[in-house]
């Protein structure tokens, strides 16, 4: 999505199916796919993007719903944040619904889509830490009817990229039927961009805790050692509660993993300390992680 063509005539194509959209993008390599357009139009209005052509995805019904498949939910990439925030979806994937409801004002939630969040990969994207904690995968549609599936974390980290003519068509999410929480901190009262966010998921079948921290780095961070440590403390066959000291220790563990201390100087001089803003962010992450785990276990 870095097409610059200031003198090109604008073409808008409105395909009716996912494969038609792929064919249109293959035929027009300079075209940009658009669903909700919340990030795209902001870039256009700021003069950062001049797309030569647009392929609108709003008429592709198969991308705007979801279905059950082998213990998973197959979510269309065109699902809007507003739709994911409704009670029926919240009963299915509560963590993702909570993130969708927190994503911003109504006009953003009504237009913004799940696939748009993934492809744009903005660090403050609220659904991204939830998808990382759920270990979701994306199904990518390509030319000739091809489909390939990769972990969403690979796409967010840039380990695998979309090729020419490819689109994120669906997101596969495991249905855990277990507590899920999402919390975020913003710089102001009311809806706003996250300064930090935490998604926490319990996985009783594997006796695991999965946590992802958003907005503090270019992609969601998984504090794997903290996950393993706290999972070993939980009585999975009992009430699953933890004492307040354990919750606090988990929050500190997560925060230190995501916002580590500076490396000690090689010359043996006085070690550097985190600047005040980073210390504040670390305290924020610790508080969010502590509260998220406490709510999941309550």
From TrEMBL:
InterPro entries: Diverse_Substr_Oxidored, FAD-bd_PCMH, FAD-bd_PCMH-like_sf, FAD-bd_PCMH_sub1, FAD-bd_PCMH_sub2, Mopterin_DH_FAD-bd
Gene3D superfamilies: 3.30.465.10, CO dehydrogenase flavoprotein, C-terminal domain, Uridine Diphospho-n-acetylenolpyruvylglucosamine Reductase, domain 2
Pfam family, one: FAD_binding_5
PROSITE patterns (UniProt xref): FAD_PCMH (PS51387)
Top-level taxon of origin: Bacteria
Keywords: FAD, Flavoprotein, Oxidoreductase
Domain FAD-binding PCMH-type: 4-178
Protein's UniProt name: FAD binding domain-containing protein
